[in-house]
Each structure stands twice: as C-alpha cells, then as structure tokens.
Amino acid sequence: MKLSPSLLVLALAAVALPALADEPAPDPLSFNVGAVTEYRYRGISQTRLKPALQGGIDYADPSGFYVGTWASTIKWIKDAGGDADFELDLYGGYKTEISKGLTLDVGVLQYLYPSNKLNPSANTLEVYGALSYGPFTAKYSHSTTNLFGFPSSKNSGYLDVSANVDLGDGLTLTPHVGHQTVKHNSAASYTDYSLTLAKDFAGLVLSGAIVGTDANKTAYASPVNGKFMGKTTFVVGLKKTF
C-alpha cells in the first residue's frame, strides 16, 4: 500500500513518540563541593566555631545500592592533642520502597580521622537504619566501636527525627531534633536541634540554619579557648552539586 504524505507523517510520528517519551536515566554518579561558616555535626562544632571546606562523591545504583565518600576540614582532633586536619567518611547501603510512600534506608558509615593519634582512636564505625514517609524521616545510628574517642563508648546511639518540607520555588525548610547517647558517659549525652532554610539555584544551594544543643558545657568545651562547642548559633552554607 502506498502511503499518502499525511499518513506517512503520522506513521513516522508514531515511531518517534515512544523514543521521545523515554527520558534519559539520571546519572548515578554525583559530586558536591561546598563551604560552611561552621561545621556542626549533631549540633557540636567540629571546627572550633570556625569555617570549613567540604566535598563528596556519591554513586547511587538504580537497584537501590549506594556508596559514597565525604570529607571536611576540622579542628577538634588537633585541639584534643591529636594530629588530623580533616574528617573522611566512607559509607554504603541500600535504599528501597517497602510499601507505598514508605522508604527504608540501611547502611554502614566509617568516620576516619587519618593519623589522629588519639587514645582511644577517634575513628568510629556506625550502622544505621532510617524510615521515610512523605517529608518525614526517622533514623537511628549505632556505633560498633568507641564513639569519636570517648572511652568505653561502644554501642552508643543517635536517634534523629527530621522533615524536608518543600516550600516551592526551590525553597526547602528542614526542622530536626536528635539525641546522642554516649555509652557509660551520661555527661556527654545530649539533645540537638536545628531549623534549616535552603534555596536551590539550579544545583547551587544556599542555606541558613539555626543550630543548638543542651549539651554539657564542660564536656563539650574547647580545650584551646574553653568556649562551648554546642552553643546556639547561625550557620550559613553554600554547596554545588554536579
């Protein structure tokens, strides 16, 4: 059968449309670099209330498995008498939807402080599990080693509850509360909280966060200047993901 010009156009369109409808798969490999006016982790300053440079690499397989690494400049190891200028995190896990809207994320995270020379070592290994539903996430992390150099602190735990609220126009609001339990050291256990507002400018994210804790001021005082490392503060960050 000979196709008329109009039928030929329709036939070609029918062949082409499925190909056009197929969106390219997202790149599983991503990179990020950034800077913050202060590096706070679980509410405690890692940089003696000073700025930090940060960056990481992530690979997320379509199957749900992922691995990554992240690093930041720090000051607390040297302040404690050790010898490490940066923190290096290595992690991997599996993330999947276990029912409609409910996501499970389990994994392992190794915190490394190369040549930290602290005794006990600051190097820490944690396993974690998280459940997310809509904007809400609850996560529990459990240390299988001593926690960040605290003696006899194996089996310490951190419970974190947060939400990621999309305000539209690239704005997100993230309230968070967490509780760190340090095994055999109640004076070092504490609750932290934060409220972060972030704006995404096509992959360049500007954020501002109010961060604070109820941590013991003696347990978390800088050995250099005596300042409290868990005081309430405002942290500004800039991060580019590509």
Extract low-pLDDT stretches: 1-21
Q: Average pLDDT value?
A: 92
Secondary-structure class: mainly beta
CATH homology superfamily name:
monomeric porin ompg
Summarize the biggest pleated sheet. Answer: 12 strands, antiparallel, barrel
Helix content range of the residues, please?
under 10%
Number of helices: 2
Question: What's the layout of helices and strands?
Answer:
Blueprint: H1 5-21, E1 29-36, E2 40-41, E3 44-45, E4 52-60, E5 65-73, H2 76-79, E6 86-99, E7 102-112, E8 124-133, E9 136-143, E10 157-163, E11 165-168, E12 171-181, E13 190-201, E14 204-213, E15 233-241
Antiparallel strand pairs: 1-4, 1-15, 2-3, 4-5, 5-6, 6-7, 7-8, 8-9, 9-10, 10-12, 11-12, 12-13, 13-14, 14-15
Could you write a compact summary of the structure shown?
The longest helix is centred in the N-terminal third of the chain and has 17 residues, at 5-21. The chain has helices at 5-21, 76-79, and strands at 29-36, 40-41, 44-45, 52-60, 65-73, 86-99, 102-112, 124-133, 136-143, 157-163, 165-168, 171-181, 190-201, 204-213, 233-241. The radius of gyration is 23 Å and the shape is globular.
